[in-house]
Amino acid sequence: MKILLAIALLVFAGNVFAQRHPAPPGAPGVIKNNLIQIEREIGRANLDCDYRYFDRVEAEDFIFTDAAGGVSDKKQDMAGEKDCHKSDGTYDVDEAEVRLYGNTAVVTGRVTTTRKNKEEKVIVRHSRFTDVFVWRDARWQLVAGHSSRTPDPPTQK
């Protein structure tokens, strides 16, 4: 009898958890497109110094690992607003792939950014990223990220 009661409690607890964290709405293709759009919005927010966007999309337990192995959390990321300078550059996401695992998604891709330096010369940088999102509170929240610069492609002659 005790085993039956324990199983019933586990099933009930699982149902309560599932109701509090429902799956993201939409077909997998729609969900993937939504996540890629979030990645593009992250790029726009970087260029525009839109820290309100980061405050919305980053989870409270967000962690970022940079190419040099440095680690920062949401509080540290948000503190960067004071040093941010708006840019009229570009932030293009391509080769994006999304893998869905229930309420979790892993997004990988390539980013090409262009900005002008102090001498007004256009600087182009390429990088690869991995971001992990969790569907919480009826929205995608970024819980972990990593970005690494990649070598510039060889110039065509």
In short:
The protein has a single domain (25-150), classed as Nuclear Transport Factor 2, Chain: A. 34% of the residues lie in helices and 40% in strands.
What does this structure look like?
The chain is of the alpha+beta class. The protein has helices at residues 2-20, 28-48, 51-57, 74-79, and strands at 58-65, 71-73, 90-101, 104-116, 122-136, 139-150. The protein has a single domain, classed as Nuclear Transport Factor 2, Chain: A (Roll), CATH 3.10.450.50. The chain contains four helices and six strands. The chain is globular. 10% of the residues are buried.
List the topology elements.
Blueprint: H1 2-20, H2 28-48, H3 51-57, E1 58-65, E2 71-73, H4 74-79, E3 90-101, E4 104-116, E5 122-136, E6 139-150
Parallel strand pairs: 1-6
Antiparallel strand pairs: 1-2, 3-4, 4-5, 5-6
Biggest β-sheet: count, sense, barrel?
6 strands, mixed
Task: Summarize model confidence as the mean pLDDT.
Answer: 87
Second rung of CATH, namely the architecture: Roll
The N- to C-terminal Cα distance equals 79 Å
Q: Which secondary-structure class do the elements indicate?
A: alpha+beta
